[in-house]
Amino acid sequence: MRLPQSLTTVGSLRSEETVIVRPEIAGRVALLAFREGHRVTKGDVLVRLDDSVQKADLERARANLVLSKSKFERAEDLRAKGFISGQARDEAENAFKVAQADAELAAARLAKAEIRAPFSGTVGLRSVSLGDYVKEGQDIVNLEEIDPLKVDFRIPEVFLSQVRAGQALQLSLDAMPDRTWPGQVLAINPLIDAAGRSIVIRAQVSNSDGKLRPGMFARVRLLTSDVRDSLVIPEESIFPVGDDKFVYKVVEGRAQRQKIEIGQRRDGKVEVLAGLGAQDRIVTAGVVKVRDGAMLKVAEPASPPVPASPVGKAETAPAAGKGS
Length: 324
What we know:
- With about 325 residues, the protein is an alpha+beta fold.
- The protein is built from 2 helices and 19 strands.
- It has helices spanning about 50-80, 85-110, and strands spanning about 1-20, 25-30, 40, 45-50, 115, 120-125, 135, 140-155, 170-175, 175-195, 200-205, 215-230, 230-235, 240, 245-250, 255-265, 270-275, 295-300, 315.
- β9 (about 170-175) and β10 form a beta hairpin.
- α1 (about 50-80) runs antiparallel to α2.
């Protein structure tokens, strides 16, 4: 098949959004309104601190505001009648504005006793308990948005001309070697690392099933615009042994286990980078029933095979004097 060529590198998964929830004021934890590992919606209350002092300050500030407003209105009336000086009126106005600012400050301090989620995401593991006294800036819990995820990776500067925003890539993980995730380039850092002469690239990958996690090690295959003929085999002909991939070759009527190196996966086909030649025949179905060295009977097609397909089919046959 004609397949686009690729650059292979490694990277790390990152959350789309991440934040450590911290209080802006000190206080005692009165409420933890989340469950660890569960999703929350933007604006949901996560933590509430004891706000009795802040409420008292707000009530006092509001009372002073009412009094200052009354004095200012009276001063304006008296000034209009010429009973007080302009300076006395200005002083009353200034006291009213200071009382307004004090009331707004007290309301802001009261609001900071309640910590809300800045975005929708999944909360992590909390580091405080109900009743704990927390200081300003103390870590409480992390909040992560993990769908979609970002992946950061580097490539040598010589490949800069082959990379662009929106370019497709494939992501694989050592933790889940039998699956790949499609993604695309999100942004390219304009600054080249002078120490390693490499470019930092950020891509985005969907994580709707929640299988991926921030911080995971990822292998990235960046598809370039170059296209060339590649050797491919059916995906079902491959079987894993540990971290390696194998197929069964048909050699003199017997199955021979052959280690291969694979590349891209596309439309049920897998690119073979090493381990097979274009004229090799392999078992493409029923590999779970085949054993290394087993006798095989090649099932030739009724019509001549398509010249472009070098892959034949084989089926197991019972060896003489043995079970199938």
